[in-house]
Design brief:
The protein is α+β, with helices and mostly antiparallel strands. About 20% of the residues lie in helices and about 30% in strands. Strands 6, 7, 8, 9, 11, 12, 14, 15, 19 and 20 form a 10-stranded antiparallel beta sheet that branches. Bound molecules: alpha-D-galactopyranose (GLA). Alpha-D-galactopyranose (GLA) binds near residues 330 and 474.
Length: about 750
């Protein structure tokens, strides 16, 4: 059973996943009656008997006096181990819940009940608490799955009062706090970034103090991502324990790691940010987004693979589909979108084997540049006097699916929509309406804005039979007010995001074939929240192959390759001016969901022929890349020799890179991972074959154990040669030896 009671009184619970155990106890102070749910263990799987011993050692049923000692310990505050430390009582750390009843800003909670629910795929534990004298209820929920080591947590607060009772104000409401077991050293890993430089991996010792990653932008943000991994300082890609926490939310968020001077580390994560206040009237409730926790052994690689598996099993809407090779027109035509221009690109794209053609910005209103027309979602009358049907019929005539770029949450002041509904934007009385990229944010929390967006998107998708929407969101919130909502206005920070989810969900329901890509000025909205509603995400507007290797490396830490859209664009790259061979650019984009984004009308016949071959090769192995288990084999991507491997059933794909031809340092032999040591593997594609030990030949058979212990050699990694060499090697398990 995934959730088991460890004692007769129901104060201790063990939650079991396939490879880990999580022990919770509800401590009740015998003098005050105050209840605090604590995390007592999170680590390698324990038998129930062993879990009972954990309980015994820490003052559980076998040692009742210990509980009280724990609650009152002065040298090591207990709140660090609480599932959701509240602001109240003898607590001085970062509160996960902060509530005000008028002038009283302190919670005193007692236990209202614990329940276990058996659900399809796992079990769920709910711990209900209530304030001692105010009509306030807090429910902590924990879910475990039969087929995943990820533990999902969330919380709900309710105003239990009746008419006439004063509202309750919430200034902090995290989804959960996670205690990371004792260690002499702690190290954290996360990603930071900026526009066109997202997902830069950062790994450093965890300082004593409170380390906060946050977005105050109303979107997930380019600067930080809502996840963290913590290890005892000795984890490598292949070895060691790693604890991870990820928040599934696409609006503002905050994740704070507390590293106490006395020892002890906790991670509390939730939506919102400081300064925002949510008001609960009588009968109201708020539920947080889920926060996910994952304990793994086997290093950062195993942690990443467990996150990817969980995303495929429990988050993504269509993980079993092969993602089509798409073409996107943005870098080729920017705003100069015409039927003839797009069809000229579409014709070439189709001849290369592209399966989905996406028309980007510039097709609507009078959108000749980025200063106008967001909100006016009808075909540009001069460019498309007869509408868009001709363009989309043309695209389909070439045998491709059709997609369109939209930015539903935005409006330009220079638009029909803004002139008709100036009150629909985020705004505050007596404050400026600051613009970014000449645009303002529509208040999606307003039901009429949500319904308007759903209405035109539904018609657009239906009328044009669209297969794909690229849903963009190019600017953060500012002056985020909703004057008509009065003191309840800050709910917009939650409801905006929830209504984006809702519109996506309803669109998908009404148009089951529709697939959606999340984009936000590049990778500004990539998280496990949006991934429930989208099939792909765009990680960065930077399409330079070498920069993208670094982005892909950071992205892969928790998000699976099958969600990551990656285009091959022109060389020199429009963002960086750097040139790279077509093959290298392809091999980088093939490490995710391959797309093409260059101006194909300028590509040489030789490039087009090579592109067609590479697209063909990608299609033959894409299932392995998009749905397989990923191993980051070696090196620092984008900086020296590196390789990434994917394994699905019997199929193995290895992508090998070497940006600096003359580098003498670094590995020459590439050891594979995750193979069956007792099987022979056949070389299906040998990549850049050559002579000599370790260089593969098509059709030859290799022992899995040898490929993992000794490795293979790739021409791309040989020490003397041109810059930007790359290779793709494909192996298939041939037969087992025993
Ligand atoms: C954002 C996106 C780009 C493109 C432009 C269009 O910057 O990230 O891919 O769609 O908007 O304006």
């Amino acid at each position: 059973m995934p959730v088991d009671r460890l004692d007769a009184d129901g104060g201790w619970w063990a939650l079991t996943t396939p490879n880990s155990t999580y022990v919770i106890s509800v401590e009740v102070d015998p003098e005050t009656g105050e209840a605090a749910p604590l995390q007592r263990y999170w680590g390698p799987a324990l038998s129930l008997e062993a879990a009972r011993r954990v309980a015994g050692m820490s003052g559980g049923p076998a040692n009742p006096g210990g509980a009280r000692r724990h609650m009152t310990s002065f040298s090591r505050p207990v709140e660090i181990e609480e599932l959701l430390p509240v602001d109240g009582g003898c607590r001085w750390g970062v509160p996960s819940v902060q509530v005000a009843f008028g002038q009283v800003r302190s919670l005193e909670l007692r236990l209202a009940g614990v329940s276990v629910t058996t659900e399809a795929g796992g079990d769920r534990l709910d711990i209900a608490l209530e304030d001692r004298c105010f009509p306030f209820e807090l429910v902590l929920s924990v879910r475990v799955f039969h087929d995943s080591d990820v533990i999902e947590r969330w919380a709900t607060v309710r105003h239990r009062g009746g008419t006439g009772d004063a509202p309750i104000e919430i200034t902090r409401f995290d989804s959960g706090s996670w205690f990371v077991p004792d260690s002499a050293v702690y190290r954290y890993s996360g990603v930071f970034g900026a526009w066109a430089e997202e997902f830069q991996l950062q790994r450093a010792p965890l300082p004593i103090g409170e380390l906060t990653f946050t977005s105050r932008q109303g979107i997930t943000s380019h600067q930080a991502s809502p996840w963290i991994m913590i290890d005892p300082g000795d984890a490598t890609e292949e070895h060691g324990q790693v604890w991870g926490v990820a928040l599934a939310w696409s609006g503002s968020w905050r994740l704070t790691v507390t590293h106490r001077p006395e020892g002890g580390v906790a991670v509390s994560a939730g939506f919102g940010h400081e300064g925002v206040r949510w008001r609960l009237g009588p009968g109201d409730e708020i539920t947080t987004p889920p926060v996910l926790g994952l304990y793994t052994r086997g290093g950062f690689g195993a942690a990443s693979r467990a996150w990817h598996d969980h995303a495929r099993r429990h988050i993504l809407p269509t993980p079993q589909e092969e993602r089509p090779v798409l073409y996107n027109s943005w870098e080729a035509t920017t705003f100069a979108v015409t039927e003839a221009g797009q069809l000229a690109l579409a014709k070439i794209a189709a001849s290369l084997g592209v399966e989905l053609f996406v028309v980007d910005d510039g097709w609507f209103g009078s959108r000749d540049d980025d200063t106008r027309s967001l909100g006016d979602w009808w075909p540009h009358p001069e460019r498309f006097p007869d509408g868009l049907r001709g363009l989309f019929d043309g695209i389909r005539g070439f045998g491709m699916k059709a997609g369109l770029w939209v930015e539903p949450e935005m409006v330009n002041a220079n638009s029909e929509l803004y002139r008709a509904h100036p009150d629909w934007i985020l705004r505050m009385d007596n404050r400026r309406h600051d613009e970014k990229r000449s645009q303002l944010v529509l208040n999606f929390a307003r039901p009429e804005v949500r319904d308007w967006a759903l209405g035109w998107l539904d018609r657009l998708v239906g009328d044009l039979g669209l297969d794909y929407l690229k849903w963009d969101m190019n600017r953060p919130f500012t002056q985020a007010g909703w004057p008509e909502a009065g003191p309840a206005q800050d709910r917009l920070w939650i409801e905006h995001t929830r209504n984006v989810y809702r519109v996506m969900e309803l669109l998908r329901k009404r148009h089951p074939h529709l697939r959606i890509e999340s984009c936000s000025g590049g990778g500004g909205r990539v998280d496990f929240g949006i991934m429930r509603h989208t099939d792909e995400v765009w990680p960065s507007d930077n399409t330079d192959a070498r920069d993208r290797q670094i982005v892909h490396h950071g992205f892969s830490q928790i998000y699976p390759a099958g969600t990551m859209s990656a285009w091959v664009t022109d060389s020199p790259n429009p963002n960086t001016g750097r040139s790279a061979p077509l093959r290298y650019r392809f091999h980088v984009a093939m490490s995710g969901v391959l797309g093409i984004g260059g101006d194909l009308t300028t590509w040489s016949q030789q490039d087009l022929d090579e592109a067609a071959e590479l697209i063909d090769a990608y299609k033959s192995i894409r299932r392995v890349i998009q749905q397989g288990r990923q191993y980051r084999l070696a090196g620092t991507p984008g900086q020296d020799r590196s390789a990434v491997q994917y394994v699905l059933d019997d199929e193995v794909v290895v992508l090998i890179y070497n940006p600096y031809g003359n580098a003498k340092r670094g590995p020459r032999w590439l050891r594979l991972a995750g193979l069956d040591p007792d099987a022979l593997y056949e070389v299906v594609d040998a990549g850049g074959t050559g002579d000599g030990p370790g260089l593969l030949r098509r059709g030859s058979l290799w022992h899995g154990s040898v490929l993992m212990a000794v490795g293979l050699r790739s021409a791309a990694w040989e020490p003397i040669g041109a810059d930007y060499r790359s290779d793709m090697i494909v192996l298939r398990r041939h037969h087992r030896l025993r």
